[in-house]
Amino acid sequence: xxxxxxxxxxxxxxxxxxxxxxxxxxxxQIDQDxxxxxxxxxxxxxxxxxxxxxxxxxxxxxxxxxYQIRNLYPLRPAAAASWIRRSLAxxxxxxxxxxxxxxxxxxxxSSHTPNLYWIDYMGTVVEVPFAAHGYGSYFALSLxxxxxxxxASLEEGLATLKRCINEVSKRLVVDxxxxxVKVVDKxxxxxxxx
Length: 194
Prior knowledge:
This protein is α+β, with helices and mostly antiparallel strands. It has helices at 50-71, 77-92, 137-147, 154-171; strands spanning 3-9, 12-18, 21-23, 26-29, 35-39, 42-48, 100-108, 113-119, 125-127, 130-134, 179-185, 188-192.
């Protein structure tokens, strides 16, 4: 029952993920952060099998930080998306394939543009203006398609996200509860309240 959303606007990317950890019919945790900060201008929301998601997210985080230490500059969002895709694709043909879906949002400081990538467990990557994963995507994608504006201000983007969260909580059988929302822009990453 995991749900994550992301959308781009004028100079920013908003990424939101529910904070509930569910296994079968049991809520295990209600304050889990499913968004990893990979670098000062790059973050990733993850969902999927509980063990795979945490292990793969930490693997990605450590390798992207290692790249920054070795090269003295961080990976740009497009390069990070390509590396993550390759890492997922390489594990597909092993017994240790990761069942993880990702939303990678970042702000490219060299071109001054926001980037959002939708990545699934099969290693498919697509740059998109908005995205969703999980059961909530069935309800949110139509709203994002209708109300998303690539030139929207941050307040308008948060209003669109709030509209998606309200729709999911109203229509999904099990309400995911709380959401953690983070914004990445030219100033870096920060958490916002909805």
